[in-house]
Every structure is written in structure tokens, then in C-alpha cells.
Amino acid sequence: MAGVSFEVDAPELATALQRLGVLPYLVRDHALELHERGAKVAEDAARRRIQHDKQSPDGEPWALWAAGRGQDVRPGQTLLSDSGDLLDNLTSHATRTSATVGNNLVYARIHQFGGDTSQGHPAIPARPYLGLSDGDREELTQALMDYLEQVL
């Protein structure tokens, strides 16, 4: 992915599954579906942050527009959702061993981590939208539990 990605790492999934007391053979037999559920939770969380929360997974509010920028903003425009491209290009991918959510737009990385655009503009502050909050981890656990209840 050329832009930026976040992998729902194995320890997060494993911790969620451990909390549920899941037997290893269930994880093996349903690995793809479990990782798909994890990817969906992470993608939904990123979408929610861009559309509504306007804060990092750690709960830190995003930096506001630069001073004076408010006059240049079109009605209805909010942080990270000017054209909707960042939101529209969020993707998730799952395999039997991993779950990843990310964005392949070139500028997705600078919004996640911040930095200098080297175009004569002020540096862009980081506005992290990828990652899991504590609430997202609870949602991940619940999604995995719901899935396993369906297959048992």
C-alpha cells in the first residue's frame, strides 16, 4: 500500500480470543473469517474518526485548521473530509494470518503521521485515524465473540 496502513496485530486478536477462552482448533479452522472481522472493526473505526470523532485512537483531539484557514473552508467541509477521497479510499484486507486497514492515497500518510509537505506550506500536524482505541478493542472482542457464537 503506497499510502499508509495499520495491521491489527496478532497479539490484539490473540488477546481478544484468549478473553473468550477460544480453543486453538477454532482459531485455525476460522482464521480467515476472524481476521476479516478484525479488519472490519479497524476500518469502521477509521471511518468513524474521519467522519465524526476527529480524534486519534488514543482520544487526542486532532489539531484544528491553521489560523485564518476557516474563511477558506467550504460549507460542510471538515478536517480530513474535504473531497471525501481519504474516506472513500480506506480499505481493509484479511488473510488467514493478518488483518490490515489502510489507504493508498499518497497524502494519507502525512495526515496519519504529520510532516512537512515541502511545497512551501506550513507543516501538517498529525491527525491519526488508523489504529485501535480501547473501545475499538472491546468492539473487536465482541465481534469475534459474535462470530464464534454463530459457528458453534
List the helices and strands and how they pair.
Layout: E1 4-8, H1 10-20, H2 24-29, H3 31-53, H4 85-88, E2 90-94, E3 99-103, H5 108-113, H6 134-151
Antiparallel strand pairs: 1-3, 2-3
Helix pairs in contact: 1-6, 3-6
Q: What is the distance, rounded to the nearest whole angstrom, between the alpha carbons of the first and last residues?
A: 35 Å
Instruction: Give the low-pLDDT segments.
Output: none
Counted beta strands: 3
Give the averaged pLDDT, no decimals.
79
Q: What is the general shape?
A: elongated
Question: Could you please describe the fold and organization of this structure?
Answer:
The chain has about 150 residues and is mainly α. It is about 45% helix and about 10% strand. The chain is built from six helices and three strands; from the N terminus they run βααααββαα. The chain has helices spanning about 10-20, 25-30, 30-55, 85-90, 110-115, 135-150; strands at about 5-10, 90-95, 100-105. The protein has a three-stranded antiparallel β-sheet. Strand 2 and strand 3 form a beta hairpin. Helix 1 (about 10-20) crosses helix 6 and helix 3 packs antiparallel against helix 6 (about 135-150). The chain is elongated. The model has no long low-confidence stretch (mean pLDDT about 80).
